[in-house]
Amino acid sequence: MRRGGTSRAWAGAFAVPLVAVLLAGPAATGCGAAGSGHAGRTPSAGADGGRTTPPSPRVTSDEDLCTKLVGHWSREVLNGRTYGDYQSMGLSGGQYDVLREVVDSARAAQRQGAADVGRLIDREAREGCVEWYRAGGPDKGPWR
User: What helix, strand, coil percent values describe the chain, rounded to 5?
Assistant: First the structure.
């Protein structure tokens, strides 16, 4: 057998399957269309046989996120478990201002023997954050 004949035989043996794979492309591999983001997934059928779509991600408002952060860190500050660096807490300067007001009110309430300081923190954090965002939020003023 000639030396060139062997390589042509091998090339011919692989050419057909390779072309078939390239032509079948996504259908053979289970991938979705390029850029579809679905990679072969199809929506599931609902109880009535119709297609259902996955739920949209829940979006947290700026005020809600601020309230959660300020409430959490206010409790930490009251319990002495933080050193007060607003950046390490993930707060902006304005959120930290709200936190300081909330903590001051909560400490005063503790000194007066208030039974439920947690509710006070939640209420004042909500009010402070709503007011802060109403006044412009992080876009108003430097370091806010």
Answer: 60, 0, 40
3-state secondary structure of 52: coil
Q: Between 125 and 13, name the one with better pLDDT.
A: 125
Q: What SS3 class is residue 45?
A: strand
Q: 26: which 2 tokens?
A: 């996504």
Backbone angles phi, psi at 42, to 5 degrees: -125, 150
Is the Cα dihedral 85, 87, 93, 95 positive or negative?
Answer: negative
Q: What angle do CA 55, 60, 64 make, to 5 degrees?
A: 150
Query: In terms of C-beta distances under 8 Å and separation of at least 24 residues, what long-range contacts does 9-17 make, across chains too?
Result: none
What was the pLDDT predicted at 125? 98
Q: What is the pLDDT of residue 66?
A: 95
Q: Which pair of tokens denotes residue 125?
A: 């954090």
Give the start-to-end residue ranges of the domains of the chain. 71-80+88-137
More confident residue, 38 or 132: 132
> The dihedral of CA 126, 132, 133, 135: what is its sign?
positive
Which amino acid does the sequence have at 104? D
